[in-house]
Design a protein that fits this description.
The structure holds two protein chains of two kinds. By secondary structure, chain A is of the alpha+beta class. Chain A has eight helices and five strands, in the order H-H-H-H-H-E-E-E-E-E-H-H-H. In chain A, strand 2 and strand 3 form a beta hairpin. Classes of the chains: A alpha+beta, B mainly alpha.
Chain lengths: 206, 224
Amino acid sequence: MRLKIIACLTLLIMGWTSVEPAFAANEPEQVRQIITDAVAAVVKILAEEGLEKDLRRAKILTAVEPLFDFASMAKLSLGRKHWPLLDAEQQTEFVSLFKKQLEKTYLDKAEQFGDEEVEVGPAEAIGSKIHVNTVVLSKGEDFGIKYKLYKAKDGWQIYDVEIEGVSVISSYRSQYDDQLRTGTVAELLQAMREKVDPKAEEQWQE
Amino acid sequence: VAAAPNGTVDFTAFEDEFDLDSEHRVFDPLAPYNRFMFKVNDKIYLWVLKPVATGYGKVVPESGRIAARKCLDNLGFPGRLVNNLLQFKIKSAGVETARFAVNSTVGVLGLFDPAKSKFGLEPQPEDVGQTFGRYGVGEGFPIVLPLFGPSNLRDAIGRIGDHFLDPVSYLDPLEARLAVRAYDQVNYESLHLGEYEKLVEGALDPYLLIRDAYKQNRDSKIQE
């Protein structure tokens, strides 16, 4: 742990002293604005009355989807060791299943917090990335949600979300790692299919 | 969606953040027992706690349950104060003291939280496990405690300290103490119904998910 802290500090200091900054000075503020707008859009949709559940979920997805780099998140979750074990077709399916699972998790969380108060805190520049801290006040309790963005080809995109210090990518990583240590890629994909769509089990058996 | 089909992300840009080569396996020597106890706790939640909390939630309005939660939370002040002091978080210790003073009086025995809503004094929760962590004590290994759920060697020992710092532990007779604890648990669950199910529903291995989430959550709290 201590070694890790020293390593982090060293990296941090090296980052500070490196010649050119990874992005322009006003970019953290721009990224913060992106998150502020997205959060406001979701809160607004959640507050809409008389909206059917499926329609509401679809509307939320349309609002936030462009912000997430699902393909990269999927790739990071599998890790450098396992990713090349999948052939091109399996990679495509993995990304699509991962995306569906993440969307489901995100929507469940959004519905749980409802149209509660959300405070968007300051944006932090961490190396070449920008993290935006938000606090959701739900039923008298605060929940910290951190959006982590990196500069993708087409602008800033989310590569990870932390809820109360728990990283989505890290959590998926250990699950996939464990599955692939004891089973095959085909088995992992099948397990994911069943999680995303319970009917997939029957199709598999036919 | 702007992302290219199979993720254009370069692994090297993220290796300082995630363990991308998955070299570090979690040391979990009690895994068989832990998995067993995880299942037991899961059933206790589904078969006992959840139905009771659901029924209770139908009778008592949400505002009342939140007030009860705050009141019991306010009683945890001694533990938060001592642990903030032990970690030399003098300012946080002061904030907690002010919160306790304001909420116990203006906040009607802690039923409300004017310290936060009126004075912007945010809670500064700390427990003995976090203090140990702050002093460099490692987590040891994961332990699933009966009823209490996920923990580790460090935090399980820390709980003993928390017990002595909690005023509820000094309630007499024992029945009163157990009743308060059980009520606290049911009340808490009534405000969080469905969250646990949603969390484990999408997991390939619920035990691993909860174990790792617990560790990440504790690590982030210790670093704060």
